[in-house]
Write a structure and sequence with these properties.
The protein is α+β, with helices and mostly antiparallel strands. The protein is built from six helices and 15 strands. The N terminus is likely disordered.
């Protein structure tokens, strides 16, 4: 299937317009979650679907025939939305736990706390093929589509720069490696145990240089005790960004312009990490994509 991004005579139903309509439904649904007196607030964060390419690939294979798509009709829009919510399961619960605090007299007391836990699970394309009872021909077409370089190009016609950085430095799209080492300890999109892995891990000693893989503007600099640990996101324009996680030291600031090859951090093992390495991700419109398609 081929997509045309803009249809002047009926812009209300253009691919881009309907894409962003669907994109907004995800954070809207999260913000509706309420368990008892608990609810979610974005606090300036951006919630986004992590598997748009999978969604559009499954929807494409579900179509009865391939065609040139310039405009999304209501029936097609509803079908994409159905695929979206068939692939994503959102659940929530309230967990209780005890903490030690001081009372008015300075004595230690146990206090019960509560936290709202939201779980988002994604079905992969193989699970969706089973759910929709794809035949052998459809499964092969789906597998071929997910591997095709042209698919990323088609998808990028939907991708606008969603990171809110104004007019960024636009990179070449051909990335250098983020570390001197090109050895990979964990690849994309799965760990050896079959669990999801949204990037590539490059094992390097703590304190090794981490490089900007292309020209861009630093959009995020964070220092977390969990998750990515000390991490950086660089916007390269046209909706393309890269993430560098688990660093020991961050050397850039948000809004800073960087050039390909600039040292932006020193590697480490902060956050959820079992050893020193650089966790590297490539994102298109905020969604993780295969980094191997960009590394040169």
């Amino acid at each position: 299937m081929e997509f045309k991004d803009f249809a002047p005579e009926c812009f209300e139903n253009s691919i881009t317009n309907e894409y962003f309509n669907l994109l907004q439904q995800y954070p809207d649904k999260l913000l509706l979650i309420q368990v008892g007196s608990f609810s979610i607030s974005n606090y300036g964060c951006q919630y986004t679907v992590a598997n748009w390419q999978d969604i559009f690939a499954v929807w494409d294979i579900k179509q009865l025939e391939s065609s040139f798509v310039a405009v999304i009709e209501d029936e097609q829009y509803n079908e994409i939305r159905n695929v979206l919510w068939d692939m994503i399961d959102i659940s929530s619960t309230v967990e209780r736990y005890l903490v030690i605090e001081k009372d008015e007299t300075g004595e230690d007391i146990e206090v019960e706390k509560k936290k709202l836990v939201i779980s988002v699970e994604y079905l992969n394309v193989d699970e969706m093929a089973a759910l929709y009872s794809f035949d052998s021909k459809q499964k092969k077409e789906l597998k071929d589509l997910m591997k095709a370089p042209e698919f990323t190009g088609l998808f990028s016609s939907l991708a606008l720069d969603v990171e809110g950085m104004g007019t960024p430095i636009v990179g070449s799209g051909q990335f250098m490696y983020p570390t001197i080492s090109t050895t990979i300890s964990a690849g994309y999109p799965y760990y050896q145990d079959g669990s999801y892995h949204g990037g590539i891990d490059f094992p390097v000693p703590t304190g090794s240089n981490v490089f900007a893989v292309d020209d861009g503007v630093v959009s995020t600099v964070r220092m977390l005790d969990n998750s990515y640990g000390y991490y950086i996101i660089i916007s390269h324009g046209n909706g393309l960004s890269t993430l560098y996680g688990h660093n020991s030291k961050l050397l850039v600031e948000e809004g800073q312009t960087v050039r390909k090859g600039d040292v932006i951090a020193l590697s480490g093992s902060t956050g959820n990490s079992t050893g020193p390495h650089c966790h590297f991700e490539v994102r298109l419109a905020g969604n993780r994509v295969n980094p191997f398609g960009y590394l040169s």
